[in-house]
Design brief:
Chain lengths: 67, 1293
């Protein structure tokens, strides 16, 4: 993996990942706001991504519990 | 004519020596033999032409030069005073297609060697084509002339000739003031310059070796057979490039070089690239332009191409060019020595802006109609840019070796050049790193291969199984000692699911399952899913500590187990707590997790992979479509459920209504018990990890009549193992699947075919995409290695409770739908041109040795083939490779074995013997657990024991610069490399007065071994010249090719070169070709003698024998004798051989026809009646003259005595075989029919009457043309497949 800076990105399922800072963010992803070197991006994700269930599952589970 | 007198003598340049070494190494190849042909319109006058050439020769020393490689301390060139112009004239004007004749002649000319000691080292050949048209060919060894010089020479020669024709007086033949001798001196200075040496040392220190990817079946190494592919560059494009050059204030060449480097970065998947660049060392003044000679050098240029704009790349390239300019005379060979790397470059960039014969404008006496330049270098691929005066524009020709690259691959590379240049011309400010547009054609292919369709409509697994239970309640479902019916199974699942719900299990909860393999386990995993949970397999054999780590890491509150005491903090449920229960009717959404499987993590902490229902449902539905199962099918469940391969065994058969046979615990490790279980239960489908399959193949009784399908995954599947399975279980399908746990078991599929040489992992399955990406996650071209990444519905949700790690491995998919993720596998793979994926190993296992990328797996695979080696592992230690071997082989022998098969840098420096290789818990090689390598032993000094060893030690000392080489010291450990090995072979040849192939030095790298090897050569059919070894390396059964009419065997050489590095090939020429050797006159006599030679060389079979034309007839009789003695001959190859009429009848009846046939291949312009009236000697001469004149002479020699002998052998062969009637031959034989014969499908040339087991196959071309370009590669591939098939049949019987 080349060095260089990354940004934290997030998709519609509220799943997190990282992407090269100088490249356009792929469709369906938005910048979360954090950027830095690779390790600090991953460390940041470790602290903010607390519920790893995809959003659709979270909603389905809430639905199912209500039922 | 008197003998010419010596005028001058001086050493060779490094490039000249290098070329001569290469020519010596590949004696019959066309390497460095250049053939330049001009088609000219105008009158031809012999005397005038000779006079013009004589003047040109008088001016230029190189045209009067010869080489003496052995007579002096170093190789030198000798310039002679008066050398006769080497003009030959051939008349083709009587032929219907003189152009065709000319190209056949050119083809042969490429292989007509020069005698280096006989000046001049060029030939000028005139072919008369038409009344007013002739061809001038200059055929020369590249060591005397470079391209510029050829252009100069032609211009000067034609100027003088045209002037001569018109009677215009010409300037006297005064030599140009600058000479080639000066250049030789300047090169020597460069070599001696410490600044220049330092420059190259620094430049090469950590440079990568940019090698273009080879597809499976293609080799690496020196070029053997080059052709060129023209890439059209239209005027507008060239203008755009010129504009970019002007803007950047650099020459056009720099812009082209920048584009070339970008293409290399694309093709290698690495932005740091090195190319060779052709430079010339002519002094920079006008007079120097006129000198003829070889002023070239190739130097490596390294550029990092990852810059944000083309402009910047161009500037960077220009800076690199400017930097090396003062050091460009330093020879490449010396650089290879400095850097200990050979080859240093794989690809060459050559830009030529010649002043070619522009003076001969239209309207002159002589006009150039067209020109053709054949020049074979030893580089595998070169990009040649030429300003072509005929085309009036810039031409790009990609010259490539057909044994290393496929035409299709080069055409695609040409497309990359075109797109890169278009991009530069269009917008020099654009970002060159974006590869999408540059790879448009590759992208279209990849997207086509990835168009695998959408997932089928989602139905959750428990619902699918419940439907089966309802549909066929009485069918057998699960066996573990006795059968559970579907109804019974369904009831138990419902019962346990209800208990789980009562214990609070809800959608998405993880539930542990800790049970031994058996029906309870099957029920448990189904019940967890039915209750809406995701199961977590907990292997009862694991230590408590690991189990409790997994339970807590995964957050599993409930565990199903029979050992409640092991899970103190959990809610524990017994597997048989309830026999039945209600239908829950739970709706499970596609994104709900189905299972959580732990895999080992690189940091030592296991990581749990969470896989959704949608993912696994897709995988299982695909399987049902790919491998339809019926109620009668039995599938064995034997994979431990902690490995994700077990998932399909546990669920899929029950989704399809088939029966699941559960192997008792432990049986999955016992091959014999497994086979017994499969037989007892009529199992029709089973999965094996390849290493287990390998063990199964060792089981003596493999009879499982019910077996229809074997599925492999988990490790690389060797083609040899597939072949064993195909022969042990004929008719059983073998499928190779690939996938990581992180993408729901498998994502690619390859259905193995019988006889395949390599087993790819296949194409993506439904709703799945494969991307091969570089380190920046950009696509790489088809054929280029990169990281295998997986997109689509099967991508897992991530690693439980590991957000950072999940974010690192599951990344945005720039090529998928919005918001989609790609899983980066860490596996190295490439697309094959047919849309399948080829697995190359783990990226972590890819190491660099002396700048060259090495796949450890590749070295291991070759090492494992060495005699005495059972298993092998390789790892890098301190910049070199260390090998570990289980078995009984000597390190020296292993190194020798590898050196014949792998490039130098891939040969490990040490070999450590181990009792067994360390493996991980999953049974895979654990490289990290390999011990420190055994120290590289420099053998204690042992003095030479006799005169021969004394001589050898002297040569070693001289070549290696080592003071006192011991007889056990390894040539390569003392700093030797392949080029020095060439030098060693030449010096030994000179000192010992006998031929010593370089291969001998490679295989026997100590003085003691060399002495032995030389002694071994003693008395055998090879040393007696009765058998010609065409390729000696390899462990496969040898192929013996018998001569055709005339007894010569040269024509088999190209075939032998293409049959594969591991295939030994020998040719048997007829008796009688050398002076004093008696001809053999009957086929029985020949067959008896030849069979004797074969057995003398290889006492035991199997052997392949075959031949073209009557070679096939003789081979059949040879095979008859070998078989009679109990040896195996898997195939006799009858190539274009006839049992009906082995030799054309007219040849036997009419000796004139025979001679014409023998000498000119059947046709001359002579009148046969006139010929038949001549005396035999006169007739021979007439035919030889006519055939020579027409360029059709079929013998290798122009010596009349030898021609006479050849005709005698031809006549003896023809009469021996001509009317021979074979007896019945009951062995296997294959008749190869040339395609252009257009034979009906049942054609057998009369063989079937004698050979009941005859098979037939097609070879390309007509008559013998299958043995030559462009057909020989195809012929060899087919031939190799037939040999494989022969071996396979043999294994089966």
């Amino acid at each position: 993996m080349p060095s260089g800076d990354y940004k934290v990105v997030i998709n519609h399922e509220e799943q997190y990942s990282i992407w090269a800072l100088d490249r356009p963010t792929p469709a369906g992803w938005r910048d979360e706001g954090f950027s830095g070197d690779r390790n600090s991006c991953l460390a940041h994700i470790d602290t903010v991504w607390t519920d790893m269930r995809p959003r659709s599952l979270r909603e389905a589970m809430q639905e199912s519990e209500r039922a | 004519m008197t003998a010419p007198e010596l005028e001058d003598a001086y050493p060779l340049t490094a490039l000249q020596s290098g070329m001569l070494f290469h020519s010596a190494y590949q004696e019959d190849s066309a390497t460095y033999h250049d053939v330049f042909t001009l088609i000219l319109r105008g009158p031809y006058q012999s005397d005038t032409f000779r006079a013009a050439l004589r003047e040109v020769m008088a001016r230029h020393a190189v045209l009067r030069t010869s080489f003496d490689l052995t007579g002096f301390d170093e190789p030198i060139q000798l310039v002679w005073q008066d050398v006769e112009p080497p003009v030959q004239e051939l008349d083709l004007s009587g032929f219907e297609h003189p152009g065709q004749r000319l190209s056949i002649w050119r083809e042969q000319e490429k292989h007509r060697p020069f005698d280096w000691e006989a000046p001049p080292l060029f030939r000028a050949v005139i072919h008369h084509l038409d009344t007013d048209e002739f061809a001038l060919t200059l055929s020369f060894h590249h060591a005397i002339l470079d391209g510029w010089s050829v252009a100069t020479m032609v211009t000067e020669l034609l100027d003088r000739y045209a002037a001569g024709l018109q009677g215009v007086p010409q300037a006297p033949a005064v030599p140009p003031p600058s000479t080639f001798r000066d250049f030789v001196a300047r090169e020597k200075e460069a070599v001696a310059s410490p600044q220049t040496e330092q420059f190259w040392r620094d430049a090469l220190a950590d440079a990568p070796v940019t090698a273009l990817p080879r597809l499976p079946g293609y080799r690496t190494g020196d070029a053997e057979d080059t052709v060129s592919h023209a890439v059209p560059l239209d005027d507008q494009l060239v203008q755009g490039l010129e504009r970019a050059a002007r803007q950047a204030r650099v020459p056009l060449r720099t812009v082209l070089l920048a584009g070339h480097l970008r293409v290399l970065a694309l093709l290698t998947g690495d932005s740091d690239v090195v190319t060779g660049i052709v430079t010339h060392g002519r002094p920079e003044h006008e007079a120097a332009e006129q000198v003829l000679g070889l002023f070239l050098n190739s130097v490596p240029v390294r550029v990092r191409t990852d810059v944000p704009s083309w402009e910047e790349l161009i500037k960077r390239v220009f800076a690199a060019e400017v930097a090396f300019l003062p050091h460009r005379l330093y020879p490449l060979f010396e650089m290879q020595r400095l850097s200990q790397r050979s080859p240093l470059i794989d690809v060459l960039f050559d830009y030529r802006d010649f002043h070619v014969y522009q003076d001969l404008g239209p309207g002159g006496v002589i006009q150039v109609v067209e020109s053709e330049f054949f020049e074979q270098t030893n580089l595998p691929l070169s990009a040649n840019f030429t300003w072509s005066p005929q085309a009036g524009g810039l031409e790009l020709k990609l010259k490539y070796d057909i044994t290393q690259f496929s035409a299709d691959q080069v055409v695609r590379a040409g497309e990359h050049y075109r797109r890169v240049f278009a991009k530069i011309a269009e917008d020099p400010a654009a970002d060159p790193r974006e590869s999408e547009e540059l790879l448009a054609a590759d992208v279209a292919s990849v997207e086509g291969w990835n168009a695998t369709g959408a997932a089928r409509e989602f139905v959750a697994l428990p619902d699918v199984v419940a439907r089966r239970v309802a549909a066929s309640p009485d069918a057998p479902a699960v066996w573990d000692g006795s059968w559970l019916t579907y109804a019974e199974f369904g009831a138990r699942v419902r019962g346990l699911a209800a208990v789980l719900r009562e214990q609070g299990v809800r959608l998405g909860d993880v539930v542990g399952v800790c049970l031994p393999r058996g029906a309870d386990l099957i029920v448990a995993v189904h019940a967890v899913m039915a209750a809406g949970g995701a199961y977590l397999p907990l292997e009862p054999d694991y230590p408590d500590e690991r189990l409790s780590f997994m339970v807590s890491d995964a957050g599993a509150r409930v565990v199903i187990t029979g050992e409640p005491g092991r899970f103190p903090g959990s809610v524990v449920v017994a597997p048989s707590e309830s026999a039945d229960g209600p239908v829950l009717g739970l709706e499970i959404p596609p994104s709900a997790p189905a299972y959580l499987i732990y895999t080992s993590g690189s940091t030592g902490r296991p990581k749990g992979v969470l896989v959704s229902h949608a993912a696994i449902a897709n995988r299982l539905v695909w399987m049902g479509e790919a491998f339809p199962l019926g109620a009668g099918d039995r599938v064995v469940q034997k994979t431990p459920f902690t490995f994700d391969v077990s998932v399909w065994e546990l669920f899929w058969p029950l989704m399809e209504g088939a029966g699941l046979v559960v192997a008792p615990p432990g049986v999955h490790l016992d091959a014999a018990a497994l086979v017994e279980l499969m037989r007892a239960h009529s199992v029709s489908m089973a999965h094996f990890v390849p290493s287990m399959l390998d063990a199964v193949m060792e089981v003596p009784d493999l009879d499982v009549p019910s077996l229809r399908r074997v599925v492999c995954s988990g490790e690389a599947l060797p083609a040899s193992l597939v072949a064993r399975v195909h022969s042990a279980w004929p008719g059983v399908e073998v499928h190779n699947l690939y996938g990581p746990t992180e993408a729901a078991v498998d994502v690619t599929w390859h259905a193995c075919q019988v006889g395949e040489e390599r087993t790819p992992i296949g194409a993506p399955i439904r709703a799945t995409r494969i991307e091969i990406l570089d380190a920046d996650l950009r696509r790489v071209p088809v054929g280029t290695a990169g990281e295998l990444c997986i997109g689509g519905v099967q991508v897992a949700q991530g690693y439980a409770a590991r957000p950072g790690l999940t974010a690192e491995r599951f990344v945005p998919d720039p090529y998928g739908g919005p918001g989609a993720r790609l899983y980066r596998t860490g596996d190295l793979a490439r697309w094959l041109p047919d849309g399948e994926v080829d697995y190359l190993g783990r990226i972590d296992d890819q190491v660099k040795v002396r700048g060259m990328r090495v796949e450890l797996g590749e070295v291991e695979a070759v090492l494992a083939q060495a005699p005495g080696v059972q298993a092998a592992a390789v790892r890098p230690v301190g910049g070199v490779l260390a090998a570990y071997v289980v078995g009984t082989a000597e390190p020296e022998e292993l190194a020798g074995f590898l050196r014949q098969r792998l490039p130098d840098h891939m040969v490990p420096s040490s070999f450590t013997e181990l009792d067994r290789l360390p493996v991980t818990a999953n049974g895979k090689l654990d490289r990290k657990a390999l011990p420190d390598p055994a120290p590289v032993a420099r053998a204690p000094y042992e003095a030479p024991r006799d005169e021969l060893e004394e001589t050898l030690a002297g040569i070693w000392a001289e070549i290696l610069g080592v003071e006192r080489p011991g007889i056990r010291d390894d040539f390569f450990d003392l700093g030797g490399h392949s080029l020095l090995a060439l030098r060693l072979a030449l010096r030994m040849r000179q000192a010992l007065g006998r031929e010593i192939p370089v291969a001998t030095v490679l295989a026997a790298p100590t003085i003691a071994q060399l002495t032995e090897a030389l002694a071994d050569e003693g008395d055998n059919p090879v040393s007696r010249g009765r058998v010609v070894p065409l390729r000696t390396a390899g462990n496969r059964p040898p192929l013996f090719l018998i001569h055709a009419l005339g007894g010569q065997v040269f024509r088999y050489r190209p075939l032998a070169q293409h049959l594969g590095d591991d295939q030994p090939v020998y040719a048997i020429p007829a008796h009688g070709l050398t002076e004093g050797d008696a001809v053999q006159t009957t086929i029985d006599e020949m067959a008896e003698t030849y069979a004797g030679y074969i057995r003398e060389l290889f006492p035991d079979g199997p052997y392949f024998v075959g031949g073209f034309c009557i070679g096939g007839n003789i081979a059949l009789e040879v095979a008859r004798r070998l078989r009679k003695d109990g040896h195996d001959v898997p195939y006799v190859f009858l190539a274009w051989s006839s049992a009906q009429e082995p030799v054309v009848g007219s040849t036997l009846e009419d000796d004139t026809a025979l001679m014409v046939h023998a000498l000119a291949g059947g046709a001359t312009s002579l009148d046969p009646r006139e010929l038949s009236l001549m005396e035999p000697a006169e007739r021979l001469l007439a035919i030889v003259n006519a055939a020579t004149k027409e360029g059709q002479l079929r013998t290798e020699s122009t010596d009349l005595d030898q021609i006479q002998r050849y005709v005698e052998v031809f006549r003896a062969n023809a009469h021996a075989v001509g009317r021979y009637k074979h007896d019945t031959f009951d062995g296997p034989a294959i008749l190869l029919i040339p395609e252009e014969d257009n034979a009906p499908p049942d054609e057998d040339y009369g063989w079937r009457a004698f050979v009941p087991n005859l098979e037939t196959g097609l070879i390309p071309g007509a008559r013998f043309s299958a043995l030559y370009n462009p057909y020989v590669t195809r012929t060899a591939n087919a031939w190799r497949r037939w040999m494989d098939r022969g071996l396979e049949h043999r294994a089966r019987h």
